[in-house]
Amino acid sequence: MPSHGSVGDMRARGISLVVVIAAGLGPACTGAVAPTEWSDDDPDVEDDSDTPSDDDTPAGGRGGRGGSSGGGGAAVQPTSIGVSPFARRSARMYARTVAAAFDGLGVDVQEADLPADVALGPFRVGSAKPPTGDDVARYATVAARVGEALAGKATELLAPCNRASTGDAACVRQMLLARLPRLWRRSVRPEEADRLVTAVFTPLAKEHGFEIGLESVLARALLSPEIVYVTERGRPAAAFGEGALALDGEGLAARLSDFLTGAPPDTRLAELGVKGMLNDMATLRAEATRLLDSPAGQLRVKEFGRQWLHVDPVKFPSKSAYPEITPAVVTQMFTETDRFVDHVMRQGGAFEDLFRGTFTFATPELARLYGVAGGGPDHPRIDLGAPDDRAGIWSRALYLAHHSHFDDPRQAIHRGLY
Fold first, then answer.
1. By the 8 A CB rule, do 216 and 18 touch?
2. Of 361, 364, 330, the residue nearest 347 (C-alpha)
């Protein structure tokens, strides 16, 4: 029977356990994720009698390599990409991973609640430094909050398992085996789910009740290095140097999805990875195209363009100085830029269009800013005139407004001739 006490007290005890577990995130960030760095009592890791073999070596700190062909078409040729920095996932990628793993349950992780990303040129990426105490507390707080929210929807979360007929522990185990592969971007062995149930759910559920046990096992899963860090799995590839790995099918699926969507592989891609079919070049190309055409892929392209151009977030001249730059026009500027980058990256445009294209996708208001006629509410493509006037993305309204140094006329050099 659960012990007496308020729900708040019991939840606090569960969260305390989560914080203790989360403290292990610090040492895990000091190097590559490898069997020698795993703790023997980590629920995510096999014991010494079943340590992952060379055929399932996790890597974080060495770049993965393409494997051999798994189909009848042309094989993906092994290619060295150099050393892959070992780092945490960005806040955005962490949040999207949680949303994908618990799709349909209304889980919403706010990026601002997670540890801050770091700048890599114009891009925001996960830090490669060991997490600070504040970072660990942020991860733990988010994990506990998500666990509590999901435990409040236990019936939906555990469906189709029936607790009354199957038992609490068995239903939690089934749920973990169904949800963890997407959360951790790899296949999950039954014994891994068993260890989480035995080490976390069962003792806490026995002492504090089912809901606290469920919250805590979910929070533990959300604090695993498999989701906090970018980890990759593969086989040793000595031809590329000491420590080099050839990505296995699941590793290739995870890298492809992370790069093109910023989220875990969907069901189709994960299945192709498990079957080794991504080692066929035609299949790999088809999946890359499919991901780019997906809503997540389209959003990824938009985010890439905005970060690359340093226009997210954006600053604009004052309304008094430039009354024509209304909030509506600002929104149109973003859409114009998004459409221009999307045209090049997804719609068959030429790479040189980014720098030499004399067209854009504009509304009538934007067209007037450029001194030409045309445009429409759906941002149709319009011609801007001679190449010397409006060539490339650098001459588009959003980029110029952000980088114009409008508040300091002495900085005209930053704007060139525009």
1. yes
2. 361
**CA 406/CA 397 separation, integer angstroms:** 13
Torsion of CA 242, 82, 293, 358, to 10 degrees: -170
**What pLDDT was estimated at residue 400?**
83
Residues 209, 2 contacting (CB under 8 angstroms) = yes
Query: What global pTM score does this model have?
Result: 0.78
Give 3-state DSSP helix, strand, coil % of the chain, rounded to 5: 55, 5, 40
**196-232 core/surface letters (b: 16 or more CB in 10 A; e: else):** bbebbbbebbebbbbbbbbbbbbbbbbbbbbbbbbbb
The tokens for 75 are 């094989």
Cis omega (within 30 of 0) for bond into 160: yes
Residue 360 φ then ψ, to 5°:
-155, -175
* Residue carrying structure tokens 């989701």: 227
Token code pair at residue 3: 């012990």
pLDDT for the residue numbered 291: 96
Instruction: Write down the pLDDT at residue 405.
Output: 64
Residue 37: predicted pLDDT: 30
Contact 256, 268 (CB under 8 A): no
pLDDT in tens, 56-66: 444 444 344 44
